[in-house]
Amino acid sequence: MGKVVLRCVECNEKATELHRDYSNGILKITLCESCQKPVDKYIEYDPVVILIDAILCKTQAFRHILFNTSLDIHWKLCVFGLLCEAYLRWSSLHSSEPSSDPADLIRYTKEWEFYGMFALAALELAAFCGSVLWFLCVAVARCQGRSVELRLLLRALLLSCYGKVLLIPAVIWEHDYSPLCLGLIKLFVLTSNSQAIRVILNSSRRLALTAVCVGLLSETCVAQACRRLPWNLQDSLTFG
After folding, report:
1. Are 68 and 9 within 8 A, CB to CB?
2. Residue 109, phi then psi, degrees to nearest 5
3. Strand 14-15 to strand 6-7: parallel, antiparallel, or no bridges (unpaired)?
4. pTM for the full model?
5. Are 187 and 57 in contact (CB under 8 A)?
6. Cβ atoms within 10 A of the Cβ of 194, count?
7. Which of 40-44, 89-93, 164-168, 212-216 has the highest mean pLDDT?
8. Mean per-residue pLDDT for 137-163?
């Protein structure tokens, strides 16, 4: 396994360590050789402060999370977001049959339509990530003459979808949300995706936004194609 590459959260230069451990439990934050600022000031911060800065899409917070931490929850976060999306899509199909029984949440997971919505959401996410990765590989190779670390970039894209946790209130209070609210959540997730791309590639805002737009276009095309297929996804997964 390769050595972990740390980054200065201020100037993005590589660093060998975030802090130095002296005797008697004394720790000293390492200064960046390039900008002479602390390599990672966030190692002293409370996680809540880091989360707030990430929500504000601060570049330093994203560098801390993507480069200087060993967060390995991107796949769990991905599955959780897909489950929330699937539930909202499923519930929208049955909005004419409201139920206030909390036990219905368990019943919903037994519905074939729920799994169909999960598969559709997963397909759209795969189209988004695949298109973004393909575009960035081509663009970076042609413009900068270097390759893209796909594994690191995919991890960044999935982690930057953390905004989907905002779907939890829509799942809990299933009839107290609006398309505007869901649209704002989608916009926030796309903004975070763009910022994650900028941080990983140290690229311009234009390249990151273009990549996100390409991914969104591909995701929309897949969604529309699934709706226009001769067979209907929901009908094919429903008996009777």
Report:
1. yes
2. -70, -15
3. antiparallel
4. 0.83
5. no
6. 22
7. 212-216
8. 90
Mean pLDDT across the stretch 83-105? 67
Let me know the angle formed at the C-alpha of 119 by 130 and 220, rounded to the nearest 5 degrees: 50
Q: What is the pLDDT of residue 237?
A: 45
Query: How do beta strands 19-21 and 27-29 pair?
Result: antiparallel
Separation in Å, CA 170 to CA 76, 89, 105, 185, 188 = 20, 11, 13, 11, 16
Collect all residues with Cβ–Cβ distance below 8 Å to 160 and sequence separation of at least 6.
Answer: 62, 189, 192, 193, 195, 196
Helix, strand, or coil (residue 146)? coil
CA distances from 52 to 88, 98, 197 (A): 26, 35, 19
CA distance 68 to 41: 11
**Pair 15, 39: CB distance under 8 Å:** yes
Give the tens place of pLDDT for each residue, 102-117: 555 555 555 777 888 8
Query: What is the Cα–Cα distance from 215 to 209, expressed in whole angstroms?
Result: 10
pLDDT digits (tens, 9 = 90+) for 62-73: 999 999 988 888
Coil, strand, or helix at residue 19?
Answer: strand
* 3-state SS record for 51-87: HHHHHCCCHHHHHHHHHCCCCCCHHHHHHHHHHHHHH
Q: For residues 90 and 125, give the distance between their C-alpha atoms in angstroms, rounded to a whole number.
A: 17
String of b and e for 16-27 (b: at least 16 CB within 10 Å)? eebeeeeeeeee
Query: What three-state secondary structure class fits 29?
Result: strand
